[in-house]
Amino acid sequence: MGWKDILRPIRDGLRDNLPSKQPHDNPEKNVRRQQDLLKGFTYFDSFQDLDDWHPDQAYSFQRANTPLLPRSGSTVVKGKSNITLIHDFSGNYHDYENVHGSFVDQPSYSGEYMQSIDTFVYFSHKLICVPPPSWINTLHRNGVKALGTFLVEPQSVGISKILHRSLADNQTWEYALATQLTHIARFYGFDGWLINIEKTFPIADWSLQCLQGFLEQLRSSFGDGCVIWYDSLTCKNTINYQNALTEHNILLAKAAGSILTNYVWSAESAARSKAFALQNGFDPVKILCGIDVWAQSSEGPGRLRETYPKEIGGGTGTGLGVAKLAEVGLGSGLFAPAWPYEHFPSRSDSEAVERSMWTGNPLPETLCCSCTVRDRHAIRNYMTEPILKNAHEFPAGSENFFYTDFKQGFEQFVCASGTAEKNRAVAGLISKSVLPRSVLYAGAQKTLFSCSEVTETNTLLLAEIMQVCIQPRSGKTRRYSISDVALSEVNETWSCLLWKVSTEGLEDAGSEDDGLPHSDVTGPFDFFVINIDGREIGRGYSLDYLLRDIDDEILGLVTAMMNIFRILGDLSHLFSILILLHKMKTSSSASGISFKSQFLYLIVYVTRYIDLLWTDPFKSLWNTTFKLVFIGTSSYIIYLMLNDYKPTHDPNLDTFRVQYLVAGSAVLGILFPYKYIPSEMLWAFSIWLEAVAILPQLFMLQRTGEAETITTHYLFALGAYRALYIPNWIYRWFTEGWFEPISVIAGLVQTVLYSDFFYIYYTKVFQGKKFNLPV
């Protein structure tokens, strides 16, 4: 023991008796805490916050409603390692984990290989870190235990409260803090705790027996495997990472039931840990040897982090550590499994590296990151020893129940026109379902969960399975009702929709009888669909749902789906086509109409709405209807101009060289799509082509010098359609932070092309005069 070990407890004792340096009246911190609370997040920064907590302070949506689905089969398999993830991702509590869902620029980490995860620890640098309900629900559907973190860091004040105890009525010691931690986990719906104490106790308060008692009480409350002691504080009240199970930490490991070692271990120390465990009656499976996934990064000139195997461990070499632990017969604790999403700036690279880590897929040749060492991640054996090869794989579902609707943690956002926005996604981590196991078939790089993701033209669609449900039959009758719906004001901005659920007939037909999941929060229901004025605005996973500005909700809170400018723009577009058809039918003529412009518009609609071949038509009837109407009416106009009214069209006036417009749009569509796949390039091509498709018509108008009034009405309505999109874009920028450069730039170009026409239309036609161009 060095002099630092002697002085540290004295220093910590002095700190514990000084006033906290983190005042509770910090305005900035309080604002952040309130914002996080409304997202469903719960955490505590101080022992005082922990003491003050009471269930009545929480909203229902802060609680997880999905019980842990018990896995069938053995929990231990010889030659395989049980995987525990310690999820430390940029401080955590991110917007995409919001219980109400959120808009994000791109998908992030959501745990893609849950069939091979035993336990998931949500970690943040808070004293008490409660996993968000979005994670707990997703983990529990997949049979994964969700643990919170109790983290005492050197700056924490009040550590001695851990050891405070009192004599209960049954003459046993009761630890108030352990009781509070149990209440918190039970209330919020997770399964246990990682106990990480990185600070020594004051000498005057230190008691190994009391710390053991604290851990034993937690273990008795949650069961084996649900309380994990971290390898930092030793039995001698020193901070000394053992990187193994030793005489310095075994008493605390036994009290908790499991231990997570630090990540600087070796093959020899892992073998010694197992032997020491067997000698002392401790199950080796309960030893989780840490593997630092970040250790493979080499950013800057500093010393590299170390994990097994030395120099190539972590990152894409994480599976090498898992392989060694599987061979020895110990568990694996992976620190920061979201590393690919922090280290690699490109989303496609992040996903590819995550697949490489877990399945052994080859890394992209164009992989780009901030490492100072070239090819740092293309280590030897990364493809032959992926994590999944040596991880214990669990069957999906329980013995009596299985359900999936294949819902992922992120979905591409679809706007009112039915097109998917390229730099926008909807985060719905709380809704993530049980997903198929990823298997490499015929060179495929990942599992596709929707027909809309299939881009190959030679793929034959036979059927699309939307959901799978397996449950026991029951002759018992259940009646459910929703009542007492009310609105409660949270603050000036937010209101909360509240309701109650009555479940008759469940008294003798509970989950213990039929094996069906049953929630303490929502009873037999997984979620509730929230509709206002006939519009679905979201899913509620509790008995309350947060609403922002109810008036806006009723008008169309699906802020990202509809707004008044977009609706008027679409209606103006439709109105322009109806005017044109009316003009042609009533006059039995196509004079003054550019065939070339109409043909370009047909190309625009066909290439843009090609997704009709694979998207669900009922997902947005508004979008589907408009797409079909635009394609159908445009085709009909072309038919009339080629047949019935062909003699009335003068090709000598319609002479604009459209090949330049098509070629230019094609080049832009190929060079600047959001993704380099055929459907995305066709979409970009259609946007650029629509911007200039009116040029043949305007050129023809310039040659004739005049036009029928009804023809000018058609052109005005067509131009107004795009002009109305400008306030639509401004509106969406302020309400959603939305910006899509291709659409905006092309739309502005199209509006500028109409500017002269708009001026003459206003000064002539709008004033009741005939439309004439100035000489």
UniProtKB/TrEMBL annotation:
Keywords: Endoplasmic reticulum, ER-Golgi transport, Membrane, Protein transport, Receptor, Transmembrane, Transmembrane helix, Transport. One of its GO terms (biological process) is protein retention in ER lumen. Pfam families: ER_lumen_recept, Glyco_hydro_85. The keyword Coiled coil does not apply. Its main location: endoplasmic reticulum. Residues 102-411 form the Cytosolic endo-beta-N-acetylglucosaminidase TIM barrel domain. Belongs to the ERD2 family. This is ER lumen protein-retaining receptor.
